[in-house]
Specification:
By secondary structure, this protein is an alpha/beta fold. 47% of the residues lie in helices and 15% in strands. The two termini are 16 Å apart.
């Protein structure tokens, strides 16, 4: 069959899925949004027959903090994706990570074009916006949460099938009346692309990190994650007699916040933009401890993909996140640590980091456990087969209804 797979973010494992589906003989058009700034996966063409990479949003600069302008931009991106659906005329489309305005426009177009589609539901947007409203980020967030929540529900009801990444999403779909078409398929990370490397590697040498105790964060980092916690973790470590270098690989609104906080507290900070994907194993390998941040009110409906990459890289991981999050469960199973994303927990979190830094044998063991868990959980064959079966079923049902 012909599949249009759109992943707005450009994450590694979605591209890996498209490669695998193409390897199995399907014609796959893998679409991403060039305007969305994040760490991207391998989006280059290769020898896999039947696979093409395309984009929307070329030349667009998203204004994340200009909410009204962003609404119009995301609507235009939806129009651009709708045109892509019309040009490609796939047998089935798989849509993931789209902002609600773009999702609603594309859902409307797919219905008009009679193209069946599957919603790959990675986040519940309305929940995130409600947390912003509660935090006082913007007075408009409460209104936006209600309006976009209705748009998200409307789109979900028009999807032929829905894939969610954790059981916790099912409750929301029960409220929306869409639980009957939900399949739970947890996210994964590409084991063959993100492999453990030596702590001292070319990337760590380039950035002066060899022989320097390093706490590293790499990936999307919004203000909702409370990025200052990273600086205060390093500060807590210093109070306990352990000076570390905090390395953050990120682009976005958190960068000036981190810069100011580190300067005010005398924390050694290295801030870098997103790195080329082929260097991600070296980046992650350069951290003695890798850190994940997730706000308390996003716990049930967000599974940070960076956690999965960290596990593949075979490093000790510190999670500052709700204990009921699926990623937190994975970290505990790997022997790593999870603490609440609160300042009151930072002394305990720092004590755990100190113990790991002081015991190379334990650090090596934790890294091996991380990789072993990833190898057990992230088997591409199983994940791809479940998607292939679902996409086939949606296509076949659509053909029968014609």
């Amino acid at each position: 069959m012909k599949i249009l797979a759109h992943d707005y973010s450009g994450h590694p494992f979605q591209a890996q899925l498209s490669r695998e589906l193409a390897r199995r003989g399907h014609e796959v058009v893998h679409s991403t949004c060039a305007a969305y700034v994040s760490g991207k996966g391998n989006l280059a063409g290769d020898a896999a027959g039947g696979l093409r990479f395309v984009t929307i949003g070329a030349g667009t600069v998203l204004k994340k903090d200009a909410y009204l302008r962003r609404l119009f931009q995301e609507t235009r991106l939806g129009v651009e994706l709708a045109r892509q659906v019309r040009r490609e005329r796939p047998d089935v489309a798989l849509l993931g990570n789209l902002p609600v305005p773009a999702l609603a426009v594309t859902a409307l177009a797919a219905g008009a074009l009679r193209v069946p589609w599957v919603l790959w539901h990675q986040d519940v947007t309305a929940v995130a916006l409600r947390s912003f409203a509660a935090a006082g980020v913007s007075k408009l967030m409460g209104v936006a949460a209600r309006v976009l929540g209705q748009g998200e529900k409307w789109a979900a009801r028009r999807a032929s099938a829905i894939v969610v990444i954790a059981d916790s999403f099912v409750r929301v779909h029960r409220e929306w009346g869409t639980a009957g078409k939900v399949t739970v398929i947890p996210n994964w990370a590409p084991l063959d692309e993100i492999r453990p490397v030596a702590r001292a590697n070319p990337w760590s040498a380039e950035h002066g990190l060899d022989g320097v105790r390093t706490v590293l964060y790499s990936g999307t980092l919004g203000l909702k994650h409370h990025p200052v916690l990273l600086v205060r973790l390093a500060e807590a470590l210093r109070r306990q007699g352990e000076r570390v270098r905090l390395v953050v690989v990120n682009e976005g609104p958190a960068v000036p916040v981190l810069t100011q906080a580190a300067a005010a507290r005398g924390v050694d900070l290295t801030l870098l933009p997103f790195q080329p994907y082929e260097r991600l194993p070296e980046v992650l390998g350069s951290g003695d401890v890798l850190v994940v941040l997730l706000a308390a009110d996003a716990g049930a409906f967000s599974v940070p993909s960076k956690t999965l990459s960290y596990l593949c890289a075979g490093r000790p991981v510190l999670g500052l996140m709700p204990r009921d999050n699926l990623a937190a469960t994975l970290l505990r199973r790997a022997g790593s640590a999870v603490f609440p994303p609160e300042e009151s927990a930072l002394d305990d979190a720092a004590a755990w980091v100190r113990e790991v830094l002081a015991d190379p044998v334990r650090a090596e063991s934790l890294g091996k456990e991380s990789r072993a868990l990833a190898e057990r959980e992230f088997a591409l064959e199983r994940c791809a087969s479940r998607f292939e079966h679902l996409l086939n079923a949606v296509r076949d049902e659509h053909v029968v209804r014609k």
